[in-house]
Design goal:
With 342 residues, the chain is an alpha/beta fold. It has helices at residues 3-10, 28-38, 59-66, 104-108, 153-156, 183-187, 201-211, 229-236, 254-260, 285-294, 305-314, and strands spanning 74-76, 97-102, 122-126, 134-136, 157-158, 161-162, 175-181, 198-199, 222-225, 248-249, 264-267, 297-300, 318-322, 333-335, 339-341.
Length: 342
């Protein structure tokens, strides 16, 4: 471990490495305000834009992604959607409730009213849209009363839903090149980062260096970050996975997220960024930059473990990814079953 890594390892509680951009802990609002002004995409795609960084995905990018498919292996990056999920009721977020409305028992006993022995099963599910593997839409987070592209938050999201950037606007957009950055395997112990570990731009660069050229990040990519926290909770139980301490991206990655011109980024954690957050009294300050100011799509609670094993085996860390949100009109987020195809 070199001196830079040692400094970072010693500083994981506060989440800032010795050579990261300055995070002014004594002035959270000032730091957030400065970052919002510096790393901002408002107007970049016109005043009527509803897609944000998904604009970086074009037809050529999808052709590039399709060319990465060589073996036909496919990996789901979704956690299960069931009652044994991570949610604990915070802000009325519960796990999915799946109910059968018709069953094989009804069919066997002829209780369904169909002719000639016909029978079937039917079911219904009730769940918050962000209870498991999901995308944050552009109407999900505001910065000081402003939504993506500088719109007034109250003009965008009302009791009728997101009237401007509803998740349905992205329903056919997210097919592109994906890149796995397995930071847990590269920098962690036994493939896992400890809770509270803040991933800096230097850590991302080091992971790319260790993984090789196939993990170079390019415009229009979806970056999947594996911290190893989901691996740990599957082994040990959910604990405080939903909203508790976690490894995640440092606020200092705001510059990287802006400069890299990625279309989206997803992690295997509940909240994408490091927790506890890096400012006392703050709540998800990197979200406050990434969604309303960058227009960046954030994915949370993804499961990259099987994909990570395959990538580590053959050293190929890029793939085609499709991760379409459900076109739920006016929703500010959506469940998703991301598929990585190699």
């Amino acid at each position: 471990m070199n001196s830079q890594q040692t400094a970072h390892a010693d500083d994981t509680v506060t989440g800032e490495s010795a050579d990261s951009p300055v995070i002014r802990r004594e002035d959270p609002l000032g730091t957030i305000t400065a970052a919002a002004a510096k790393y901002n995409n408002w107007g970049r795609w016109g005043e009527d834009d509803v897609l944000g960084t998904l604009n970086f995905i074009d037809a050529g990018k999808r052709v590039e992604a399709a060319a990465l498919v060589t073996t036909g292996e496919a990996f789901s990056l979704s956690q299960p959607f069931d009652t044994d999920g991570p949610q604990k009721g915070w802000r009325r977020r519960t796990n999915p409730v799946h109910t059968m409305t018709d069953t094989g028992v009804d069919a066997e006993r002829g209780n369904q009213g169909f002719p000639h022995g016909f029978g079937g099963a039917d079911d219904v599910i009730a769940m918050p849209l962000q209870c498991s593997t999901q995308w944050d839409g552009l109407g999900h987070i505001f910065d000081r009363g402003k939504a993506w592209n500088g719109r007034a938050a109250g003009d965008v999201v009302t009791s009728m839903g997101d009237l401007v950037t509803g998740i349905e606007t992205a329903s056919a957009k997210i097919v592109t090149r994906g890149v796995l950055l397995d930071v847990g395997r590269a920098l962690g112990v036994d493939g896992e980062l400890p809770d509270g570990f803040a991933i800096t731009p230097e850590d991302l660069a080091r992971t790319i260096e260790l993984q090789g050229t196939s993990s170079a990040v390019r415009r229009g990519d979806i970056v999947v970050i594996r911290t190893g926290q989901y691996t740990r909770v599957r082994r040990e139980g959910w604990g405080d996975y939903a909203g508790g301490s976690a490894p995640g991206l440092s606020f200092s990655t705001a510059a990287w997220l802006h400069a890299s011109e990625i279309a989206g980024i997803a992690t295997d954690t509940w909240g994408f960024e490091v927790r506890p957050n890096e400012f006392e009294g703050a709540f998800q300050p990197l979200h406050q930059i990434a969604i309303p100011n960058l227009g960046l799509f954030l994915g949370e609670m993804w499961d990259p473990d099987q994909l990570a094993e395959a990538c580590a085996t053959d050293g190929k860390y890029d793939f085609m990814i499709t991760a379409a949100p459900l076109p739920i009109t006016g929703a500010v987020g959506s469940p998703v079953n991301p598929i990585a195809v190699r």
